[in-house]
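Structural prep section.
Before we set up the soaks we want a predicted structure of the protein with S-adenosylmethionine in place, mainly to decide which crystallisation condition to try first. Input record follows.
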Amino acid sequence: MHFLPEDLDEYVVAHSEDEPELLQQLSRETYQKILQPRMLSGHYQGRLLSMISKLVNPKNILEIGTYTGYSALCLAEGMQKNGELDTIDINEELFDFQRKYFEKSEFGHQILQHVGDALDIIPKLNKMYDLIFVDADKENYSNYFEAIINKLNVGGIILSDNVLWSGKVLETKFKKDDTSTPALIEYNKLLKEDPRVETVVLPIRDGLTISRKL
Ligand SMILES: C[S@@+](CC[C@H](N)C(=O)[O-])C[C@H]1O[C@@H](n2cnc3c(N)ncnc32)[C@H](O)[C@@H]1O
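Run finished without errors. Recording the C-alpha cells verbatim:
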C-alpha cells in the first residue's frame, strides 16, 4: 500500500540515507532464494529503524521475527558496544542464512539467534531491553505486548510493524480465514489505551507504531 503518490515516495527515498552494501546483498539473496521476500523491511524502513535505534542508543535490543536478518542488522547499528541483540524466529531453515550475514557485519558477536515460538522463548530471556521490534505473526501481537512489557526499561521503545495491514484495519467485516486483521485492530486499540505506554502510529510503509514505556 502506498500512502504517498509514487513520485513523492521516490523523492522521499532518494533524499534519505543510501542502503548499505551488505544490506543490498542480503536483500538480493533473499529475493533470489527465500520464500515471501516482501516480508523483509527493505531500504527505506531499514534506514528508519537504524535512525530510531541510533536515537535510542539501546544497550539491549529484542526482535520478534528475524526472517533473513535485515531489520536485525539495521537495529544493531544503534546498539551500544557492550549491548546484545536477541532475535527470535520460528523458522529454523533461516538460521544459517541469518548467521552468514550477521558474521559479515561488525555485529556478529553481539547478535544472538533464538529458534522457536517467540511466546515460549521470551519468558526465558533474563534481560531488560531498551528497544523491542515486534514483526512476527500478527495474531500474537497483543500476546507479545504482555510478554515483553515487563522486560522493557522505563523510557524504552516498542516498534510494531504492519499495524495498518494495507488499510484493512478500517474494515468491520472480515473473511473467515482472516485472523490477522481483527488481531491488529485489537492490538492498535491496546497500545492506544494501555496506561503503561504512550503511542504514535506512523503511516510509513505498512504502518509502524512507536510506543514508549512510561
Ligand atoms: C515479517 S517477517 C520478519 C521480517 C524481518 N523483521 C525484517 O524486517 O527483515 C516475520 C517472521 O516472523 C516469523 N514468525 C512467525 N510466527 C512466529 C512465532 N510464533 N515466533 C517467532 N517467529 C515467528 C516468521 O518465520 C517470519 O520469518
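Observations: Residues 39-41, 65, 67, 70-71, 88-91, 117-118, 135-137, 140 surround S-adenosylmethionine (CB under 6 Å).
Flagged for discussion at group meeting.
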